[in-house]
């Protein structure tokens, strides 16, 4: 288990029977660099290490019958206690579950402020309800579909949270211009070459006129949001945004 560092901004502890799955994020990209720079700290607790039987099993049949198996309470309880013992302060315990609250970009700053998070990655048909009722602080879901376990969901949340921690991504403007940052989907982006297979980059992006580029990008963001995620437009639009969106709607409706 890695020792905590006073300069570390956020600690993650993951309770999982498949810790090697997390190499997908800890061995690559910005998460790897953030760990190396002591910005974040990630470690794993395997409930099998706390199983009290000779087979190291961590699941059993549900009382009352029914299909599948449940993760047992005792190994999870001991895993939680061990995870908490590695942290200096109070930790928020999150259970990844299809019954949980849907994770969205707007929740990330709140989760960052918690600083110490323990993720429980369920398997099989879930975990003993007594763990949820007595030890879990929050239940989260990444979408309205079922996964075989909580590991992938935890990885997604850790990646999303980590990239907004100060120092993980160096260029602040890269984050500010992203999809969902202003409740709009991102505008189209292009890079070299200027033309490929007779398809050219929009001329406005080559103009050097920053005002025109800003308006074009804003217009494209509004168009894409209205077409693909109109629910995001519940926010109050600025006068400029309203004019641009109405212009697009008028043209779009004429094509129908």
UniProtKB/TrEMBL annotation:
This is tRNA (guanine-N(1)-)-methyltransferase. It is found in: Cytoplasm. The gene is trmD. GO terms for molecular function: tRNA (guanine(37)-N1)-methyltransferase activity. Pfam families: tRNA_m1G_MT. Homodimer. Its EC number is 2.1.1.228. Residues 11-234 form the tRNA methyltransferase TRMD/TRM10-type domain. It catalyses: guanosine(37) in tRNA + S-adenosyl-L-methionine = N(1)-methylguanosine(37) in tRNA + S-adenosyl-L-homocysteine + H(+). SUPFAM superfamilies: alpha/beta knot. S-adenosyl-L-methionine binds at residues 122, 142-147. Keywords: Cytoplasm, Methyltransferase, S-adenosyl-L-methionine, Transferase, tRNA processing. GO terms for cellular component: cytosol. One of its GO terms (biological process) is tRNA N1-guanine methylation. It is an enzyme of class 2 (transferase). Specifically methylates guanosine-37 in various tRNAs. InterPro entries: Alpha/beta_knot_MTases, tRNA_m1G_MeTrfase_C_sf, tRNA_m1G_MeTrfase_TrmD, tRNA_m1G_MTases_N, tRNA_MeTrfase_TRMD/TRM10. Belongs to the RNA methyltransferase TrmD family. The keyword Nucleotide-binding does not apply. It comes from the Bacteria.
């Amino acid at each position: 288990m890695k020792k905590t560092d006073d300069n570390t901004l956020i600690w993650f502890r993951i309770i999982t029977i498949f810790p090697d799955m997390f190499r997908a994020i800890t061995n690559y990209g910005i998460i790897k660099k953030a760990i190396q720079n002591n910005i974040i700290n990630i470690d794993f607790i395997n409930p099998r290490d706390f199983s009290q039987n000779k087979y190291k099993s961590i699941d059993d049949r549900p009382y009352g019958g029914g299909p599948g198996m449940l993760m047992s309470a005792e190994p999870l309880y001991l895993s939680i206690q061990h995870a908490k013992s590695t942290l200096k302060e109070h930790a928020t315990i999150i259970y990844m579950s299809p019954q949980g609250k849907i994770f969205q970009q707007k929740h990330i700053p709140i989760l960052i402020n918690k600083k110490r998070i323990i993720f429980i990655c369920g398997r099989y048909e879930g975990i003993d309800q007594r763990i949820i009722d007595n030890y879990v602080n929050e239940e989260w879901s990444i979408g309205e579909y079922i996964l075989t376990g909580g590991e992938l969901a935890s990885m997604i949340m850790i990646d999303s949270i980590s990239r907004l921690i100060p120092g993980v991504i160096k260029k602040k403007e890269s984050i500010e211009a992203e999809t969902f940052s202003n409740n709009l989907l991102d505008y189209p982006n292009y890079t070299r070459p200027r033309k490929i297979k007779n398809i050219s980059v929009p001329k406005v992006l080559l103009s050097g006129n920053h005002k025109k580029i800003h308006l074009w990008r804003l217009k494209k963001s509004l168009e894409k949001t209205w077409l693909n995620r109109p629910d995001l437009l519940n926010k109050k639009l600025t006068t400029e945004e309203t004019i641009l969106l109405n212009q697009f709607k008028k043209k779009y409706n004429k094509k129908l």
